[in-house]
């Protein structure tokens, strides 16, 4: 039995080694395919799968796909040429999907602590390199803990984007996950991840249930704790991209969960330098993002239509100016109504989370 308290994350109430071993056992030996899951939590996408993404997924080897356990679709925009890190990559489905989207000039690194999963991922590096028409692999896999990226040998300020798909909830120390992610991201980089969230903090009897933890329910964060932890480690406030209700689909497990409600939600968190000024401005989306030529849905509250002038607050202005999205927008200074093109990085709004339970 173990406890992972979010309000008092002390060593005494968090025997992390036991959680790690239980998760390794669950995902390395208990689960052999998605059919072995005992609930719907790891099968609930926050957003529908776009046709273009579906076509890319069809190129991934079937054995890799069979070992996929995720609750979202982690496909951020503007990926070409980017360095991407996948936290808890498992057998590598999302890594190989993104390998096609970053192109031969990009790099996708997957990190996971479960050797059985990594064996499957590494087995098909050559297969996907050849299938995608690359001269050399643009995908690599590292064994390690998502709470200790530096110990695993990952460089600081190196990655443009970090993704994660229904994995952060499995960690006994969510704050360390966010802190390490913040460290290895470049300024202006983004953590774009899907996970399971709960309507309230979960009690000990749910957090200490091994099956519920393995099914991504026992370790689910209350979404307000995500806001707090993100601020503590230096991220901008999380921006909600999409969310959908999770139906457990197992009467026995549902009875243990009582009236607690769960959602699968995708958030984007940006790393912005502290000294960047936040001034509102007008922005115009240029319509050049592949697959988003007519409009760009940035989050649940902001959709930018091509050539439409939109006034954004200082926080969002800083995000657009300082991130990889900078060259996709034209910026007009409010005071002088002066148009400029500039490069800067991303940020987030607390109100974005209000759509969650």
From TrEMBL:
The name of this protein is Arsenite methyltransferase
- An example molecular function term from Gene Ontology annotations: arsenite methyltransferase activity
Organism listed in the record: Scleropages formosus
Q: Which Pfam families match?
A: Methyltransf_31
Q: Which GO terms describe its cellular component?
A: cytosol
Family designation: Belongs to the methyltransferase superfamily. Arsenite methyltransferase family.
Q: Which domain of life does this protein belong to?
A: Eukaryota
Annotated InterPro entries: Arsenite_MeTrfase-like, Methyltranfer_dom, SAM-dependent_MTases_sf
Amino-acid biosynthesis recorded as keyword: no
| The reaction(s) this protein catalyses | arsenic triglutathione + 3 [thioredoxin]-dithiol + 3 S-adenosyl-L-methionine = trimethylarsine + 3 [thioredoxin]-disulfide + 3 glutathione + 3 S-adenosyl-L-homocysteine + 3 H(+); arsenic triglutathione + 2 [thioredoxin]-dithiol + 2 S-adenosyl-L-methionine + H2O = dimethylarsinous acid + 2 [thioredoxin]-disulfide + 3 glutathione + 2 S-adenosyl-L-homocysteine + 2 H(+); arsenic triglutathione + [thioredoxin]-dithiol + S-adenosyl-L-methionine + 2 H2O = methylarsonous acid + [thioredoxin]-disulfide + 3 glutathione + S-adenosyl-L-homocysteine + H(+)
Keywords assigned by UniProt? Answer: Methyltransferase, Transferase
């Amino acid at each position: 039995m173990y406890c992972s308290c979010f309000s008092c994350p002390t060593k005494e109430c968090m025997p992390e080694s036991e959680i790690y071993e239980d998760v390794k056992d669950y995902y390395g030996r208990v689960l052999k395919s998605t059919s072995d899951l005992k609930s719907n939590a790891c099968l609930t996408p926050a957003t529908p799968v776009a046709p273009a993404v579906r076509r890319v997924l069809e190129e991934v080897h079937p054995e890799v796909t069979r070992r996929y356990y995720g609750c979202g679709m982690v496909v951020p925009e503007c990926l070409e040429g980017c360095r991407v890190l996948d936290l808890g990559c498992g057998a590598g489905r999302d890594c190989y999907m993104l390998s096609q989207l970053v192109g031969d000039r990009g790099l996708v690194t997957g990190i996971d602590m479960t050797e059985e999963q990594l064996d499957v991922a590494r087995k098909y590096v050559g297969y996907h390199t050849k299938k995608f028409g690359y001269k050399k692999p643009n995908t690599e896999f590292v064994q390690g803990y998502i709470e200790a990226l530096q110990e695993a040998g990952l460089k600081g300020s190196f990655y443009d984007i970090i993704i994660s798909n229904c994995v952060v909830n499995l960690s006994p120390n969510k704050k360390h996950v966010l802190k390490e992610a913040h460290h290895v991201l470049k300024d202006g980089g983004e953590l774009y991840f899907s996970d399971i969230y709960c309507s309230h903090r979960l009690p000990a009897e749910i957090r200490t249930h091994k099956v519920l933890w393995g099914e991504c329910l026992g370790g689910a964060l209350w979404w307000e704790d995500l806001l707090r932890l993100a601020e503590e480690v230096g991220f901008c406030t999380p921006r909600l991209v999409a969310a959908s209700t999770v139906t457990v689909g197992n009467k026995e497990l549902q009875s243990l969960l009582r009236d607690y409600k769960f959602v699968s939600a995708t958030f984007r968190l940006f790393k912005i330098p502290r000294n960047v000024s936040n001034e509102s401005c007008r922005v115009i989306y240029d319509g050049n993002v592949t697959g988003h030529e007519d409009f760009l849905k940035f989050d649940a509250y902001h959709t930018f239509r091509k050539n439409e002038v939109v006034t954004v607050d200082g926080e969002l202005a800083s995000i657009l100016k300082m991130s990889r999205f900078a060259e996709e927008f034209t910026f007009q200074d409010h005071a002088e109504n002066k148009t400029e093109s500039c490069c800067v990085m991303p940020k987030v709004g607390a109100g974005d989370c209000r759509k969650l339970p």
